[in-house]
Structure formats: C-alpha cells, structure tokens
Design a protein that fits this description.
This protein has helices at 15-27, 38-44, 64-74; strands at residues 7-11, 31-35, 52-56, 81-85, 91-96, 99-105. With 111 residues, the protein is an alpha/beta fold. The chain has a single domain, classed as Response regulator (Rossmann fold, 3-Layer(aba) Sandwich), CATH 3.40.50.2300. Strands 2-1-3-4-6-5 form a six-stranded mixed β-sheet, sandwiched between helices. Strand 3, helix 3 (64-74) and strand 4 (81-85) form a beta-alpha-beta unit. The radius of gyration is 14 Å and the shape is flat. The chain starts with 6 loop residues before the first strand and ends in a 6-residue tail after the last strand.
Length: 111
C-alpha cells in the first residue's frame, strides 16, 4: 500500500467552491490542483492524470458531462469521477458512454 497522498483535481468556474474544496481536501491530506475551466483539465491530462476528478456539471464552455465524455475517449481506464451541482436532488446519477456517474449536490451555498 502506497503512502503517497491522493491526487485530486477540482474543476469549477466558481472560485469560492474551488477554494473551499481545496482547503477541505488538503486538510484531509490530499494533494489538490484546481481548474476554472474543463478545457484546462484536458490540456493538463496530456502530461499527467489525477487519482480523482471532482467537477461542476454546469460551467461556461465545456460542461462537466462533456469533460467526462472527452476524458473517457482520451483515457478510458480513468474511472474515478464525481460531479457536484448547485440545484436539484441531493443525489442522482446518469449514464455516460455506458458508465454510471454519480452526481452530488454542492454543499456551498451562495447568499
């Protein structure tokens, strides 16, 4: 068993969500890299891959679901995906290219 920290990438157009997730994940002992746009993740995936990807569903430009579809094309072995979103049921799922994807509600509330 490796003692290396889990490498987690966070993708969200909302800086406050990225900040909160970064702080919480680092406090849990994980390495975190944050991205504002899905397109930036695709660029980074040319040279490295995370252990886990957490992404918003709705973002300007490429959506989180479109990102998942592209990642599955580029790296079909990469299977750890978790989506979060601001509205809707607390938990739901969808299928992308035959794979079940969990969608969780964001815990950050805007005032």
């Amino acid at each position: 068993m490796s003692s290396d920290p889990l490498d987690v990438w966070v993708v969200d157009d909302d800086q406050s969500v990225r900040w909160v997730l970064d702080k919480a994940l680092r406090q849990a002992g994980m390495e975190v890299r944050s991205f504002e746009r899905a397109e930036h993740v695709l660029e980074a995936m040319q040279t490295e891959t995370p252990d886990v990807l957490i992404t918003d569903v709705r973002m300007p430009g490429m959506t989180g679901i479109a990102l998942l579809e592209r990642l599955h094309e580029q790296a079909p072995w990469f299977a750890d995906y978790c989506y979060h979103r601001a509205h809707g049921p607390r938990k739901c799922s969808c299928r992308v290219q035959g794979r079940r994807i969990r969608i969780l509600a964001k815990t950050v509330r805007h005032r």
